[in-house]
Amino acid sequence: MADVAVVRSPDIKKQSGFAFIAASCVAVLYLPMLVVIAYSFNSANNLAAKWHGFTTSWYNVVLANGEFYDSAILSVIVAVAATLISTVLATAAALGTTRGRPWRGQGSAYLTITTPLVVPEIVTGISLLSFFAFLSTVTGIDLGIWKLILAHSAFCIPFAYLPIRARLEGMDTTLDNAAADLYATPWKTFRYVTLPLLVPGISSGAALAFIVSFDDFTITQLIAGPGETTLPLYIWGRIRRTLTPELNAMCTLLLLISLAFIVLSFVLSHRRRA
Amino acid sequence: MAEIKDMQRLDDARRRLLTLPAVLFILAFAALPLLVVLAYSFMKPATYGGVEWQLSADAYVGFLFQKDIFDDSLTFSSEYLLIFARTFLFGIATTVVCLLIGFPTAYYMATRPPQTRNWWVLLITIPFWSNLLVRTIAVMFIIRDEGLINTVLLSLGVVDQPVTMIFTDFAILLGLFYSFLPFMILPVYASLEKLDFRLVEAGYDLYASRFQVLTRIIIPLTWPGIATGSLLVFIPSFGAYVTPLLLGGGRHLMIGDLIALQFGSSRNWPLGSAFSMILMAFVMLALFFQIRKNAGGVSHG
Q1: What residue segments make up the domains of chain A, in order of their start?
Q2: What is the per-residue pLDDT across B137-191, written as a single tens digit (0 to 9) for each?
Q3: Which of B231, B223, B238, B243 is nearest to A117 (CA)?
Q4: Which CATH number, 3.40.1550.20, 3.90.950.20, 3.20.170.30, 1.10.3720.10, labels domain A63-270?
């Protein structure tokens, strides 16, 4: 090996201090979340940092809370609808923009699809607020919860699109060509060859779309009408009032939901390519 | 020959058709709303929010000048400009700190054995996607006067009064750094992972110093990742809304909060729209630089 022969040069894999910095990063990133999780089991009656004893009663309080439950249902409805719409559109777009000769305008299409990634959330939020207000003054239609679903679908598209596209780029076209040589129609080739190979990419993209929609706060807060309270909006409302210990439990539940979908997406996208 | 060309044209048309729905959807629910904001920024505010359909540049004038309520004379006012400058500074500071801490972390990750590397990536990916509101709340709980840090400091006798951290500029910067650090680490890591470390070795063999290896080999070759990471940190911290609201306590405003305020209690939609357009101009500028620098990096490599 090279590092045996080269004694003089410093070992490039070892930069003193980098391990410490990396470890500190992980500590800084996880410490606040772990504290919230730990204190969700603290039996103290207030949010003070003193440890009083272990209890799971805050979870009972949260789960018995009707408003929490209702906002969770709304969050799931919006996230599922947005995930379905964005994943279908993103899959089609990924098939249209990978493999084969780029068509004229493909670059602009790619830019358009990834636009939501570079627009700050606050600007997206107020632009949708203005847009829906404009729509309702001109047409008199109030879209209700569809405002949330349409908005979420739009900003979820790039998150679903990128993993699907990455998967498609990693797949070679030999099998598709073989299917075509055997007189499969384009639809049959897609249904029986491409789609099954693409499933991990699609699932990974869908999981990301779900989490991005489920966790969204800024945009939702600006466009949600009265009574349209998603889970992040509900927690926000509670934070603005008195700080109570069950907030820790609510935050922990939200983190666990994020975690489940992140790990799902990660495992799917890092599984060995077929 | 003609047949192949025809098939290719058919394939082009089919792929164009597949892409169209997503493009149209984003044009309708992301691009068109931005045009509405652009239009609103040139109108007059209605009394109860919304706009009056009258062309006016008042919103942009209002960014720099204050109109006297009696004689309509304009005097220069730096209030909004200062908030913009502050926000810009916060955005740059967050990006620089994230890069200084994130780069060594990414380098460390990229030099682990492949199996360990995946675990590291997962470890950084989890906070990357975790609920930002909840993560900010977590920081708030820790740095409160009654929070964990102050309780520990007090009980150890390091201080005899809680150190005020929450509702300060420090709290906002800490929150921004904490929120967006993973956005820097992951793209930089992606570049470093592809880096051919034999080039680094060759550099050392040719008697380059550590600093030379870093500036002549590693940074140029990983520039796309550094640029992407910087952009991913700069854009959301420049447009930050929740972080300053929760950790700055509403007293230390950033542009994002100023915009939300105009669409909320201040009921001046055109002014908020104008702020948004100015914010977008900065974002476009940053994107433009990234694309140019990226192109530059490629030609050097």
Answers
A1: 16-55, 63-270
A2: 999 989 988 888 888 888 888 888 888 888 889 999 999 999 999 999 999 999 9
A3: B231
A4: 1.10.3720.10
What ipTM was reported for this prediction? 0.89
Contact of A192 with chain B, judged by CB distance below 8 Å, is answered with: no
Q: Which of B137, B189, B200, B255 to mutate to test the interface with A (most CBs of A within 10 A)?
A: B137
Burial of A240 (0-12, 13-18, 19+ CB in 10 A): exposed
Quick one: how many helices (H) and strands (E) in chain B? Answer: 15, 4
* Residue bearing tokens 């911290």: B237
Instruction: Please name the residue of chain B whose CA is at the shortest distance from the CA of residue A240.
Output: B246
DSSP 8-state class, residue A245: T
Q: Hey, what CATH topology would domain B77-300 get?
A: MetI-like fold (1.10.3720)
d(CA A42, CA B257): 34
Q: Which of B27, B29, B150 sits opposite A150 (nearest CB)?
A: B29
Query: How many inter-chain contacts (A to B, CB under 8 Å) are there?
Result: 268
Cα(B124)–Cα(B127) distance, integer angstroms: 6
